[in-house]
Amino acid sequence: MAKLSLLCCFVVLAAFGFVNGYAKKEEIGFYELKKGDISVNFTNWGATIVSLHLPDKNGKLADVVLGYDSIKEYQTDSSYIGAMVGRVANRIGGAQFTLNGTHYKIVANEGNNTLHGGSRGFSDVVWKVKAHKNEGHAPHIVFCYLSPDGDQGFPGDLFVTVSYTLLGNNQLSVTMKAKALNKPTPVNLAQHTYWNLGGHNSGDILSNEVQIFGSHITVVDSHLIPTGKFASVKGTPYDFLKPYTVGSRIKKLPTGYDINYVIDGGVGHKMKPTAVVHEKKSGRVLELSTNAPGVQFYTGNFLKDVKGKGGFVYQSHAALCLETQAFPDSVNHPNFPSTIVSPGKPYKHYMLFKFSTKPSSD
User: Fold this and answer.
1) If you average pLDDT over residues 269-295, what whole number do you get?
2) Closest by Cα among 195, 163, 206 to 295
3) Among 40, 162, 286, 335, which has the highest number of CB atoms less than 10 A from its own CB?
4) What's the Cα-to-Cα distance from 137 to each of 133, 171, 204, 252, 326, rounded to whole Å?
5) pTM, rounded to two decimals
6) Which residues are catalytic?
7) What pLDDT score does 59 carry?
């Protein structure tokens, strides 16, 4: 019976185009979704958002995400631009953890720590395009990937799907799901788009006004690994409970923002307001909500001389990231919400972006 079940599992995965964890004969290409004023382009290398065009307050279109012109540039990218990251996004201290009495040593790719899944995480693999429909009331694309047992040191086979859907009222929905097929394993997926609402080639985001609905952050050490403690943002440069420009207090930090916020509204699975970004010159507004407990706010601190789309060169603070997620290094902190996914207990992570414009108040 066990052999029959294993055979059936293999047949199902082969039907999806997967053998030994990789997309079988899967072409790498670009794909588009368009609805109303929004158009979004993707590549199945890393299930990546390549471009996102939005109108400004005067109706002028601009591409508001950082990216590259070619697949080759995405394959050599080291900044996770636009990609889906995992199996575990963010950092795992010491590149190790213990699960059900077994100690796992995983791939270290940031000093002694693991960042965004290891040296070949989900951002650096070919995803299969399971569905693509660029018409109707909800244009969508679905990517899927099988991460094999032992991938970057993580236990168990993990089947992952990521769906991007354009909805009415200028909304983009992102749905991340994962199923552990045979062993419990940590899972924390994140969408790593770099946003510049003025346009990807408009310069820095220091004048962008940001509001983050998080009263606390997860305290980190000098290597950005959580200590397990929480701290209030009040009276600190991390306080975005009311809207502030990114640049208003950034000089009080060593390099810029790179911290996980505990989203107000509880740890439950309901959707909750997460952040609002307003770029005053263009009038563009991004509103983000999620069911995840945290959001990593990152201001592109380590971008330097990155040649992007159209030959434009991205520098530090050329964009900001809002990566909804579980808390970093959760697998080593029992007081953090668990990131362990087991067979029969799937992972579900939702993001909803709403785009709009508002006139200048000047």
Assistant:
1) 97
2) 195
3) 162
4) 10, 12, 35, 46, 31
5) 0.92
6) 192, 323
7) 97
